Amino acid sequence: MSEPADKKPETTHFGYREVPVGEKQKLVGQVFSSVAGNYDLMNDLMSLGIHRVWKRYFVATAQVKRGDRVLDLAGGTGDIAALLKNRVGEAGELVLGDINGEMLRVGRDRMTDRGNVRGFEYVQCNAERLPFPDASFDLVTIAFGLRNVTDKAAALREMLRVLKTGGQARVLEFSEVKADWFRPIYDFHSFNVLPRLGKLFAQDADSYQYLAESIRKHPPQDALKAMMEEAGFARCGYKNLSAGIVAIHSGYKV
């Protein structure tokens, strides 16, 4: 007898390893609890600071205005939320959501140290089951977090659910490099340089080996666009940055 077509898989990928679906969230949590204290430093080292340019462009091109309410998922250390605050102004609200309590704590402390207190809320939550009512936000963002979600389709459906009609969802994520000549260089950096940087500066090579592997397992540009359309988003599209090292995906609720 064949299995039902809608039967959920029993395993999923954690980097290049196949693990039980129920274990991935715990394993990803261990990674981010380990790297939380060195997260910003390692991002600068890994990308030579270019991640800051990507994030500024991601926010600068978002559909958002003063007074809007925004949800930033995988909010981490608050980089995206701090940039968004300048767009929504004093009347706007920023909700930082992250499944990892340690990352959320580091982000809250750093935002407070920068004087970013009013208009911010911090919520520990799973992107697959958001604890917010329907139509709660004008904009939902997730930067470098979707690839770590076990059920990406569920997370996209939840992002759509909590958006107001006319609202926008934006995903900034590592993607598929498009230039053939650049791929060997990128692969060498990913699998040889990143783990060594992790060992040297964060005393954790394994987490950065996972990072390199998780990027390769994440859906490439057209596949992620199709997933957003399947989730119910309209007018989906993407823009490659840095030859496709990262891509910005957008979709709207109609």
Question: Would you write up a description of this structure?
Answer:
This protein is of the alpha/beta class. It is 44% helix and 23% strand. The protein has a single domain (22-179, 207-252), classed as Rossmann fold (3-Layer(aba) Sandwich), CATH 3.40.50.150. The strands form 2 sheets. A 7-stranded mixed β-sheet has the order 5-4-3-6-7-9-8, sandwiched between helices. The chain has a two-stranded antiparallel ribbon with strand order 1-2. Residues 1-5 have low confidence and may be disordered.
Please state roughly what percent of the residues sit in beta strands, choosing from under 5%, 5-15%, 15-25%, 25-35%, 35-45% or over 45%. Answer: 15-25%
Q: Please state the structural category.
A: alpha/beta
Q: Could you name the CATH topology?
A: Rossmann fold
CATH class value: Alpha Beta
Which residues sit in consecutive blocks of at least 5 with pLDDT less than 50? 1-5
CATH architecture: 3-Layer(aba) Sandwich
What count of helical segments does DSSP give?
9
Read across the widest sheet, the strand sequence of neighbours is 5-4-3-6-7-9-8
- N-to-C terminal Cα separation, in Å? 41 Å
Q: Summarize model confidence as the mean pLDDT.
A: 89
Major sheet summary line: 7 strands, mixed
Note the run of SSEs as H and E: EEHHHEHEHEEHEHHHEE
Work out the oligomeric state of the chains in this entry. Answer: single chain
Name of the CATH homologous superfamily: Vaccinia Virus protein VP39
Helicity range: 40-55%
Number of strands: 9
Tell me the overall shape: globular
Radius of gyration: 18 Å
